[in-house]
Design goal:
By secondary structure, the protein is of the alpha+beta class. The protein has helices at 12-19, 53-70, 95-109, 151-166, 184-193, 199-210, 217-226, 263-266, 272-279, 288-292, 298-306, 309-313, 323-343, 346-359, 375-387, 393-416, 420-450, 455-468, 473-478, 482-494, 499-509, 518-529, 538-545, 550-553, and strands at residues 2-3, 32-36, 79-85, 121-128, 131-137, 230-235, 241-247, 261-262. It has a five-stranded antiparallel beta sheet, with helices on both faces.
């Protein structure tokens, strides 16, 4: 159940005209009062043909008029309006039930506390099955104004309890970090102009897409302006930036003037101070040797940057109390998801962009982010967008797999701190990322499967799986992606790595209980960690590649017969005895 308190108004009669009217799309049916401050003698134009809207408006405005006649300063912002809507899947609520809900809402808000005979005047009008509108005039019978500070939080908490008491859909508790819901006027305007998004939603997407490209707010505003966004900076006489507003081209007011929105009204984390703190972080200059050893592609560099994320987010006794660093990592993770969406092939961008849009809610909470802790991750996002697209599909698939695990960790991090809204956003982002990974990894997995090792080598590698991850071996070997994993392990062994050690390391980096396809998860992790041959095992790798090595080591070369060195002809598949 959602109760959305609207900005204070000044025209009681005008709002009544809307509540009792047909609606903008003829959706108002049988408007009538279901509850009010004093039902006895209440004029209801919906049920009494002799009652008028003006009469009802005067009835509600009497305390306001009395106060205005006795005090010099007039009360003008006295109309309190709160639509209360049930979820589409909720059961039908009777007028009596809606009346009870309305009474609980006005009590929680401070409009009419329970047992207060001098409270504000209010009514609840029902003109549809799934919602009511509560209208109140915010001058009490004793002439005082009600205490409405933080009324939105109190009303939201009461809605969560109402959902529980009436068996309705349970929503997550808010924490004042969500973006403002679009108004009816904004949605109708977007529909009228043929826009898929309201202006504020469109602007939020543009700003978030620009963040990975900028290192300063001035650079961010310049990028937005080049992207076609109307930008209006606010500067002090010294020239320092003190604020900014942005507008969508074509979004004009009734006088034909451009409408601008301050960053903080678009999203809570897009205010000037928060953007300055976020963009002002940087990493120290790399040592030349470190630059030479960096991975070949930006996608691989981004995956390496993500390797440090689990240590920041997994709860241990050592990182308790470092919530600010964890929140910063999650904020930077959102930038990396956005950067990946911008540089991925066109067929993957829709899912990745949806993941970025969903994860935006997980990027902010009441915890103040220590952005300097996430400088490395943020730098990886900037490097990624500056490098542009590439053609290494396997590296992209590995990166998306790492993003999935990082988003899962972000979900758990938020859950551990009671951040229900953020955790739900992270889970939604995981779904989009998994859909993108399914597309990105399919060609690569098919290619790996086509060149899977011979049966003897697969059997040996299956024993390695059982030795390294015994709790998950059955699921791994039964996974349709096991032949592809066997190929990756064989390739890694040829590069000087030990499959058992790689499997153990991969399972430590990414727990497998939550994995839909554990073999596929391991493919990505092992491809990433075994990219370079292990220096201290090159001699062992060379010995394993020798045709005569089989009798000495007990292992087979990945693709060769133990006697001739030629490709072995498959006879039976030993993997059938390992969970298939």
């Amino acid at each position: 159940m959602i109760a959305a308190i609207k900005p204070a108004g000044a025209n009681t009669r005008g709002l009544l005209g809307y509540l009792y009217g047909p609606g903008t799309h003829d959706e108002h049916l049988d408007p009538h009062i279901v509850a009010g401050f004093a039902m006895l003698g209440m004029p209801d134009p919906g049920r009494d043909e002799n009652a008028t809207l003006s009469e009802l408006g005067h009835h509600l405005d009497e305390p306001v008029a009395l106060r205005n006649s006795e005090f010099g300063k007039q009360v003008t912002d006295h109309v309190w309006h709160c639509p209360v809507r049930a979820a589409p899947e909720d059961r039908y609520l009777s007028d009596t039930e809606w009346a009870q809900i309305a009474q609980r809402i006005v009590a929680a808000a401070g409009i009419a506390p329970e047992g207060d005979d001098l409270a504000c005047r209010w009514i609840a009008v029902r003109h549809a099955d799934d919602h009511i509108h509560i209208l109140a005039t915010t001058v009490r019978e004793d002439g005082r104004r009600p205490k409405l500070h933080d009324s939105g939080i109190r009303v939201g908490n009461e809605c969560r309890q109402i959902e529980k008491d009436y068996g309705l859909r349970r929503l997550n508790k808010g924490d004042r970090t969500a973006t403002r819901a679009p108004t009816q006027a904004e949605m109708h305007k977007a529909a009228r102009l043929g826009w898929e998004q309201t202006s504020r939603a469109w602007l939020q997407d543009r700003i978030r897409a620009a963040i990975p490209h900028a290192t300063t707010v001035d650079g961010l505003l310049a990028y937005l302006e080049a992207d076609g966004v109307e930008v209006k900076p606010r500067r002090a006489p010294s020239g320092d930036l003190t604020g900014y507003s942005v507008g969508r081209p074509g979004d004009l007011n009734k006088d034909g003037e451009q409408i601008y929105h301050p960053g903080g009204k678009i999203a809570p984390d897009l205010t000037l101070p928060k953007l300055q703190a976020r963009l002002g972080t940087s990493t120290p200059e790399e040592h030349p040797t470190a630059r030479r050893n960096r991975p070949a592609t930006p996608w691989q560099q981004a995956t390496e940057a993500l390797d440090a994320l689990p240590g920041q987010l997994i709860d241990t006794e050592t990182n308790r109390g470092r919530e600010g660093a964890g929140q910063a990592q999650i904020a930077a993770l959102g930038e990396l998801i956005e950067a990946t969406a911008q540089t991925a092939p066109a067929e993957l961008r829709a899912e990745l962009k949806a993941a970025s849009r969903a994860f935006a809610r997980a990027q902010r909470s009441q915890i103040r982010a220590e952005h300097s802790a996430a400088a490395g991750l943020r730098t990886a996002a900037r490097d990624l967008v500056n490098a542009g697209t590439g053609n290494d599909g396997s590296a992209l698939a590995v990166l998306i797999a790492a993003l999935i695990w990082s988003a899962i960790l972000a979900d758990r991090w938020h859950q551990a701190r009671g951040h229900a809204q953020q955790a739900a956003a992270a889970r939604q982002a995981v779904q989009y990322l998994e859909a993108a990974y399914d597309q990105a990894a399919a060609p690569q997995l098919a290619a790996l499967t086509r060149r899977q090792p011979n049966p003897d080598t697969r059997a040996t590698l299956a024993h390695d799986v059982q030795a390294a991850v015994p709790d998950h071996a059955t699921r791994i070997l039964a996974d349709p992606n096991w032949p592809a994993l066997a190929t990756v392990l064989a390739d890694a062994e040829a590069g000087g790595h030990q499959p058992v050690q790689l499997l153990k390391e991969a399972a430590e980096q990414r727990e497998l209980h939550s994995a839909r396809n554990p073999a596929r998860v391991l493919v990505g992790r092992i491809q990433h960690t075994s990219r370079n041959p292990a220096p201290n095992r090159r001699a062992e790798a060379a010995r394993l590649r020798s045709p005569s090595a089989g009798n000495l080591s007990g292992r087979r070369t990945p693709y060769s017969s133990p006697t001739t060195g030629r490709a072995a002809t498959p006879t039976t598949d030993p993997q059938q005895g390992h969970g298939r």
